[in-house]
Amino acid sequence: MMKIFLGAISSLAILSFVNALATSLITKDVETCPINALSCSANAGGSCCSPASSRVVLAQQWYEGLGPANSFAIYSLRPSHCDGTITPWRECDPSRNYPDLNSILRVNQTLYDEMSTYWPSFRGPATNDEFWSREWKGHGTCITTLEPKCFSNYTQYHDVYTYFGTALQLHKQYDLFSILSDANITPGGSYSLDAFEEAIRSYTGFTPRVSCRQGSVLNEIWIYFNVRNRDQYEPTYSTARSTCSRQHPIQFPMK
């Protein structure tokens, strides 16, 4: 049975804030959706019912000094084509390339603080705003269920808060550090690619994408999701292969 980790992140506070911005996140006046609309299926419905022609990928990264020592850091929440090809970075809706995203996010200080902790820029805190803006422009605006027309009572920047709040919630629910620790895979050791994949598969039911840098140093882990009824993220199979060698152990460095 799938476990849900209820760590220190106050995601309920984030979701409460987002919910307070509108009466409903689910009811749609502009589009009638099939029952249990599911992305990448014959029952996907329109672009507000499930992300148009895409799954959604939560990419988490592991680098020395990036984020807490006992947590993977978020890299992105991005769409991925149903046919398995990765959706490239692109500005899908330039009209929502909001200036000064930093100030928009600071309206919810809890959300901002958690992003600073768990979604930091690789180039340091001074570049967080630039990094988050790029993720929003190139990935957030490409997830069609976040378009303003898909909210029954849209208020300004509701799409932004929902995108970043959803990523934090998924990061907490799919706590890779805890999942791996439960399988006795811990920083400072070296383990096979099969061991990494099996640990995560035992939790999600599906094989993730595990990538390495320098050939055998753990870099990123991607979990793929189909989206049901607009905002229910369900793990599914990876459509991209792991890049780490199966012949050599993967180094899981200490932070």
Automatic annotation (TrEMBL):
Keywords of this entry: Disulfide bond, Signal
Chain ranges passing through the membrane: none
Signal sequence, start to end: 1-20
GO molecular function: ribonuclease T2 activity; RNA binding
Gene3D superfamilies (UniProt xref): Ribonuclease T2-like (3.90.730.10)
Pfam families in alphabetical order: Ribonuclease_T2 (PF00445)
GO biological process: RNA catabolic process
InterPro entries assigned: Ribonuclease_T2_eukaryotic (IPR033697), RNase_T2-like (IPR001568), RNase_T2-like_sf (IPR036430)
A GO-annotated cellular component: extracellular region
Family classification: Belongs to the RNase T2 family.
Protein name, as recorded: RNase Sy
Record organism: Absidia repens
